[in-house]
Every structure is written in structure tokens, then in C-alpha cells.
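[Meeting: bench + compute handoff]

Bench side (C.D.) handed over the final construct sequence. Compute side (W.E.) agreed to return the predicted structure before the next meeting so the bench team could plan truncations. Sequence as handed over:
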Amino acid sequence: MKFIVIGAGLLGLSSAYYLSAQGHRVTIVDRHAGAGLGTSFANAGMLTPSQAEPWNMPGILPKVIGWLGREDAPVLLRPAALGSMFFWGLRFLHHSGRERFHRNAMSNARLARFSLAALHELRQKEALDYGQICRGSLKIYRDREAFAEGVSLANLLAGSGVTPNILDPAGALRVEPALQDVVARLVGAIHFPDDESGNAHRYCSALAATMSRQGVEFCGNVEVNGFVLTGSKVSALQTGQGDMEADGFVLCAGSHAPALGAGIGLHLPIQPVKGYSITVPMSGSGVMPGMPVVDDARHVAMTPLDGLLRVAGTAEFAGFDLTLTAGRIENLKRVVGEVFPAFVPEPTMDVGAWAGLRPYTCDGVPIIGRAHLGNVYLNTGHGHLGWTLAAGSGKLLSQLVSGITPDIDPAPYSPLRF
């Protein structure tokens, strides 16, 4: 069969790779000129089953209310976005009940473990090099109550194969000597040895090049306008360059998926959530971190990438506005100063400030599988877990498309659950 995959980010590339491996003819279309130039471009660079929990954890509402109006808040709601996300927000809060939250966290964790195993196979088979580091990640805590919550959540995820090592501040320093300047302010940390990291854009470029050699076609600079519906199936993709026909279509358009799907009756509960990143050089006499460090209090991750430090985080509900807000960028610089002061950027330094839109579902679980139309498939809504879940999501989708018994239960990710 011939498939068109819409989106050349981490999920689109993974979908295309595994569909091609099943013998299908695949064309990838994207509005950018190349692969991985959207939300996949300058993200935190982490593959973290340890962070499988959705953001709508129990007790999130009073926290969000307390953060209102604060530019340094981990989660920020812009007034202009409130109208468009009202009903989504109600469903988001509905899924913050403890039982639903635990169920959704475990669904993500199972997919994350499956995905990491799939990535290992893919990486070895295709000899991909994207600056990968396989030393785990370290989550640091400054507050005892937050640390206790983190330990409880880590123990929950341990049921799906996540391995947490609970550490006191001295133990955290032994695992990551680069924390020497912040260790006195820590109450504890959790090391997740199975987590990984690397350069996501470099990964996308390498995977796209591999698929090109294998016969997958890439069409860049293509604006997708909608679908041509013939009876109960889609017969073609409407683009600025004309209609593109195929037997099947896979929507991997991230935050733009709801708008594209609306024309064929898809109602996808996905909201764009803006995240920021900066990238600073690790030069001078400072001790370079050997793994990603996640600051729980600041909701910021700091990942070493080939002599650079990628600092990423925060969640901002601002619709599709990608404006780089100075206050949010300064917050990231401030966290560097707190945790790794040797690498704090000079005021005039170009820190490669960037923003991307995470596609977040109302339950915090991705959407993978066939839509109500027989030849339209979805692989989107992965939120903050895009790279973590990408390989497994693509493999699962290809199994569903090809009629192969899935390696994991697809029900938690079904588009029909909404």
C-alpha cells in the first residue's frame, strides 16, 4: 500500500520508518524544508520513561491558580488562550483524579519502555549516531514535600519497569559531581539509570537520510490544506502543490493535527503548549554534567549535548503564539546560574533562544491508531514525551496498519477513546 505521512518530526519519521519496514511505499510531507525542524528541533534532548506521568497530576488546579500572573511560573496561562482551551481544560482536570492519573501514567510508562527497546534495535540496525548518552537522568529536589511526592511517583512507575535510585544530597553529588554548587540547597534526588539523551534534530536528520536511501520519499515546503473525502475514505491530500493520492494517510502533525482533522470529522482534544529552550557553551573550568539534570522546583531540564548545555522547560498555554518572551528566557538563564553557575551565559551572549509547541491531549496520553475513517491513522498528542515515545509509537502504528498482533496493548492510545 502507498501511505502519506503528514509531518516530518519525531513521530512522523518513526511512523514512516516502520511502515516502510513493513513493505509499504511511503511519502512524508512537511511544511518545513527538512526533517525535524518544528517541535523536534531544539527540545530538551531527553528519552525519559522516568517522566511518563501526565502533567495533570492530582492537586494541579490550586498550583496553576497560584501561578497565575507569574512570569516565572512553571505553568503559565496567557489570557488570550483561555477561550480556546476552556472545554479541553475541563477534561484535563477531569483526568487529574488519582485513579485516572495513575492509569494514564502507567499507559505512558509501558509505551515508553517499549519505545526505548525499539529505539535500541533501530539505532543498532541503522548505525545511527546522534550524540547519544546512556547514563540516565537525575532529578533534583529542593523541597521535602515535593521530594516525597517524587519518590512516591517513581515507585509507582517502577511497576512498569522504570528503575529509580533514591539519593540523599551526598549521593546525588556522587552520581553527578557537577552539582557541587547547588548540593547544599538540595534535600534529595532520584537517579533513573535507564534514561537516555541526545540531539533530537540530529537524530531526525540521520533517520531521514537512512529512509531516503531505503526509498522513502520526502516532500518539503508543502502546505497541507485538507483532505479529499470520497465516500467513507480519504482519497487524496490537498496541498498547495496540488492533490496527492494514496491508499492510506497518517496524521503526525502535532499541535496542528486538530485543525487538519476537523475537515474530515475528527475532534482531537489536543492543545499546543509552548516550551522554551536555550543552548549555551560549557567552557571554562566548570565541571561538565555527564547526564541530564531535571530541576523539579523550576520544571527545567539541563542536558549536555556535544559540549553545549541545552536548557529547556516551562509550559505556556498561549495558543500557537511562538513569540520568545524575554522573561521566560531569563528564567532559563537564572536556573543555569543556580545549578551550574560556571556556565551561566554572559548578558550579550546569543543563547539560541527557541520555542516549540508540544501537542498535549486532555488525558496526557498520545493518540495512536485508526480514526473512524477506514484509511486515516493518527500518531500525535505525545506532549512532553515526543522523543521518548516516538520509536514505539511508530512501531505500534505500523503493526496496527499491517494487521500484525501488536507487541503491546493499543487500547489506551486508541483515537476512539474520546
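W.E. noted at the follow-up: DSSP finds eleven helices and 20 strands in the chain. C.D. will use this when planning the next construct.
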